[in-house]
Amino acid sequence: MAQTPLDYTAAGVDYSKIDPLKILAQKAASATAGNLAGHGVSEILASRGESAYVMDIGGTLIASITECLGTKALVADAVRPITGKTHYDSIAQDTIAMAVNDLITVGATPLSIHAYWSAGGSEWFADEQRMRDLVLGWQKACDVCKVSWGGGETPALAGVVEAGRIDLAASSVGIIPSRERLTLGDKMQDGDAIVLLASSGIHANGVSLARKLVERLPEGYASKLSDGRLYGEALLDPTTLYVPVTEALFAAGIVPHYSANITGHGWRKIMRHPGNFTYRIHTLPDVPPVLAFMQEHAGIDDREAYGSLNMGAGFAFYVAAEQAEEVARIANGLGVKAWVAGRVEAGPKQVVIEPLNLTYAADELHLRA
Amino acid sequence: MAQTPLDYTAAGVDYSKIDPLKILAQKAASATAGNLAGHGVSEILASRGESAYVMDIGGTLIASITECLGTKALVADAVRPITGKTHYDSIAQDTIAMAVNDLITVGATPLSIHAYWSAGGSEWFADEQRMRDLVLGWQKACDVCKVSWGGGETPALAGVVEAGRIDLAASSVGIIPSRERLTLGDKMQDGDAIVLLASSGIHANGVSLARKLVERLPEGYASKLSDGRLYGEALLDPTTLYVPVTEALFAAGIVPHYSANITGHGWRKIMRHPGNFTYRIHTLPDVPPVLAFMQEHAGIDDREAYGSLNMGAGFAFYVAAEQAEEVARIANGLGVKAWVAGRVEAGPKQVVIEPLNLTYAADELHLRA
Q1: Which residues form the PurM-like C-terminal domain (chains A, B) (predicted)?
Q2: Which residues of B touch A159 (CB under 8 A)?
Q3: What is the pLDDT of residues A114-127, one digit of tens each?
Q4: Does A174 reside within a domain?
Q5: Whether B153 and A111 lie within 8 Å, measured CB to CB
C-alpha cells in the first residue's frame, strides 16, 4: 500500500492521554473501599482491576459494572442510507454485550441491566423505526442473557452529545452463587488450556479504525468483502453474547480458572490476568472477512491487527487442560464456535502466537482495564 | 418583562418527543422480568416505575440505578474563565447525587458507585486540574455517602460526544437490609406529614433553562445575585447528598412511608406516588437566591417556576405525622435544613401549594420517571 498504515493514534484514540486519569481514578476508587465496613459489607479486593466489581453482601456475592458502546452507533447512522435498516437492534445487542461479556468474566450470572441512552436532542427519540429497533433489540438481548431490564435513563443532552447522535451504555448487576465460582485469577496455573470463542466480527472495539478506513475506500461502507457482503453491513453484525456459554459451563459443573473478554487492545488482552504467565497460542480462529478486509485496506501488519482487533476471537477461557475439549464442545453446541487454541505456561508474561511468529510482551498491555 | 417568558420547550427540552420512547421501553423492560425466575431471583414489582429497581436475590434485597448528570458540566465549562476554578469537584458530587438521591427513595443504603465519564476526545483527560478535581470530588462524594467507588468507564467518543465536552453519569448498587425498610408507596396514608429538605440551589435540574437565560443577561454568568454572589458560581453549588439523612433516619428507627427526589418537573414530583392523594403544602422552604434570580429574569410565574425547578426543596419525605418533627430535627442536625411543610390527604391526586394559591393536577405529571 502506498498510504501510511492506519493505526489507533491516527484514528484519533490516544491512550497515553487517558491512562494517567485511569490510574489516578483507580487509586482514588480503591481508597473508598473502607466505606463498606460500616454496612457490614466488604469488597472482594481481587476484583479491583478485573472487569467487574464484586462485593460480599452478607455472604451474597454481587458483581456490578458499567460499560459503554463506544462509537459504533456512528457506523449504524452511516450505513442506514445504504441498507435501509436502522441497525439499532444490533447496536442494542452490542451495548448489552459490552456490559455482560465483562460481567461474566468474574464468574457472575447477570441478573439485571440498566440502559443509558443519552441523545443529542429530544428529536433523536422521534424517529419511530430507530427507536423501536433500539427498544426491541434491547429486550431481545436481555432475553438471550436471561436478565431483567430494570430501568434506565434517556436524557436529551444538546450541547454535550452531538446533534443527531446517541451515547449508549449499559450497567449490569449479577450474582456469583458460590464462592467457588468466583473467577479472579487465583485458580490459573501452568498447563491450563486456552479456549478461544469465535467473535461475530468487529464487535464494538476497533470501530474508530473501521470508520477512519472508510475515508480511503472509494465505495466507503458499500465496499464489498470477500464473501460478497457490504463492509458497513458486516461491521454491524452484533457482538456475540457469551452469557449462554458461561451459564452452560456452570450448569455442567465447569468453572474456568480465568476468563477474558477480548475487546480493546485485541489479543494483548489474552494476558489480562495479573500473574506472570506465558500464553502460547498454537491454533488461530477463522478471521471474519470484515476484519481481514480491515487489515488489508488499513495496511496494518499482523502485530498491529492482532494487537488491536479481536481477529476472530471474542472471548477466552483458561481452563484445566482436561476440561478444554468439553468447554469447546459446549460452546459449539450453543452455536458459538470454539477452539482449544493454546496453553498457559509458567514463564515471562507474554502472548506468543506461534502460527504468526508474533509475541506481545507484558509492557505492551499497560492497563488492566 | 418585555421578552417572552422562557420555559422548557423554549430551552430545547421537548418531553412530548421523549415520553413515547419511555413508555415503549417501560413495556419492553417489564416483559423481561420473567427472565429472573430461572435464577431463583424475583423483582419487586412495585419498584418498576419507582426511582430504583429492586430485586430479591435469595432474600437479599438489592437496588440498582443508572442516572446522568445532564448538561450541568456545560455551566462549569462556561464559568471556569470567570472564577478560575474548574468546578468539576462540584460536578462530580452532582453526578453522584443524581444516582444516590434516587436510590435512597426506595429505602436503600447505597453501597457502590460506578463512574461513567464519556468525553468528546482523549484530550479532555489531558487537562490535569480538571481531571484531578473530577477524581477527588468523586472520591469525596463517595466518602460522604459511605459508598465504595467500584469502577467505571472513561471512553473518548469523538463524533458522539461534543469536542471538549463530557457526558457524566453514575450507576449505583444498594441494599435494603430488611423488607420493612422497602419504601415503595404501600405505607403512605391520609394524614401523613410531608417533610421537605432544603436544596443547595438548582441541583442538576433546570440547567437548560439556566443556560438559556444567560443569553438574556448582559453580564451572563457573571451577573450578581441578591446575595452578591455570581450567577454562574451559585449555579455550581453542588447538589445536596441526602444519603446521610436517610441513614440517620434508619438508625433512629424511622422508616418514611414514601420519599421523592425533587428533580425534573419540580414540585409536580411531590405527587410522584402512584396512589390518589392530595398533597397540601402549608409552608414554603426558603428559595435559594439563584432560583429566585432565575424566576425573575426568565420572567416565569410561580406555576412555571415551582413546576420545573426545586425552588428550595430538594427532597421530600412522607412520614407518620407524629414522626415529622423528629425527621426534621435529624436532618437539621446534619446541616440539611428541613421543614414540616404539608400533609397528605385522601382526595384527588394533586399538589396544592396554599401559600402560593397554586394547584398542580394529576395530569400535569404524566410520567413517573
Answers
A1: 189-352
A2: 71, 74, 162, 165, 211
A3: 999 999 999 999 89
A4: yes
A5: no
Domain membership of residue B27 (yes or no) is no
> Rounded CA gap, B72 and B211, in Å?
9
Same-domain check for residues B176 and B206: no
**Within this chain, do residues B232 and B146 fall inside the same structural domain, yes or no?**
no
- The answer to whether the beta carbons of residues A186 and A106 sit under 8 Å apart is no
Domain span at residue B212 reads 193-364
CATH number at residue B294: 3.90.650.10
Residues A231 and A356 grouped into a single domain: yes
Cβ contacts (< 8 Å) between B250 and chain A: which residues?
none
- Interchain pair B143, A114: CB under 8 A: no
Distance CA A131, CA A135 (A): 6
Domain boundary residue, one of B157, B181, B205: B181
Element (H, E) at A343: strand A338-346
> pLDDT tens digits, residue range A79-109?
999 999 999 999 999 999 999 999 999 999 9
What is the mean pLDDT of the segment spanning B56-83? 97
Size of interface A-B (CB pairs under 8 A): 288
Strands A350-353 and A277-281, sheet pairing: parallel
Q: Are residues A171 and B67, on separate chains, in Cβ contact within 8 Å? A: no
* B127, B152, B181 - which closes a domain: B181
Smallest CA–CA separation between A356 and chain B, in Å? 31
Query: Among A39, A64, A111, whose Cβ lies nearest the Cβ of B36?
Result: A111
> What interface predicted TM-score (ipTM) does this complex get?
0.94
Residues of chain B with Cβ-Cβ distance to A136 below 8 Å are 28
Tell me the Cα Rg of chain A: 20
Whether A66 and B171 have beta carbons less than 8 Å apart is answered as yes
Which pairs with CB-CB distance under 8 Å and at least 24 residues apart come from A85-88?
A: A85/A133, A86/A127, A86/A129, A86/A130, A86/A133, A86/A134, A87/A133, A87/A236, A88/A130, A88/A131, A88/A133, A88/A134, A88/A137
Instruction: Say yes or no for a CB contact (<8 Å) between B116 and A150.
Output: no
User: Is the confidence at residue B250, as pLDDT, over 90?
Assistant: yes
Helices of type H across B113-201: 128-145
C-alpha–C-alpha distance, residues B257 and B344, integer Å: 11
Give chain A positions within 8 Å (CB) of B71.
Answer: 157-160
Kindly state whether residues B235 and B308 are assigned to the same domain: yes
Residues of B within 8 A of A14 (CB-CB) are 122-123, 156
SS3 A214: helix
**CA A184 to each of CA A97, A189, A259, A278: distance values in angstroms, whole numbers, following the listed order:** 20, 13, 8, 18
Locate cell 463498606: which residue? Answer: A36
Q: Give the Cα separation of B357 and B191 in Å (integer).
A: 21
Give mean pLDDT, residues B186-212. 97
Same domain, A280 and A328: yes
Bridge-based pairing of strands A338-346 and A193-198 is antiparallel
Do A320 and A257 touch, CB atoms closer than 8 A? yes
Could you say which of A25, A111, A160 has the minimum Cβ distance to residue B165? Answer: A160
Q: What are the helix (H) ranges across B273-321?
A: 289-298, 302-308
Nearest to A196, CA basis, from A357, A365, A310, A352:
A310
Question: B38, A115: Cβ pair inside 8 Å?
Answer: no
> Do B95 and B219 have their domain in common?
no
pLDDT digits (tens, 9 = 90+) for A271-318: 999 999 999 999 999 999 999 999 999 999 999 999 999 999 999 999
| Same-domain pairing of A58 and A78 | yes
3-state secondary structure of A368: coil
Q: Which residue do the cell numbers 423492560 mark?
A: B29
Number of domains present in the structure of chain B? 2
A23 C-beta neighbours (distance < 10 Å), count: 13
Instruction: Mark out the alpha helices in B56-159 (DSSP H runs).
Output: 72-83, 88-103, 128-145
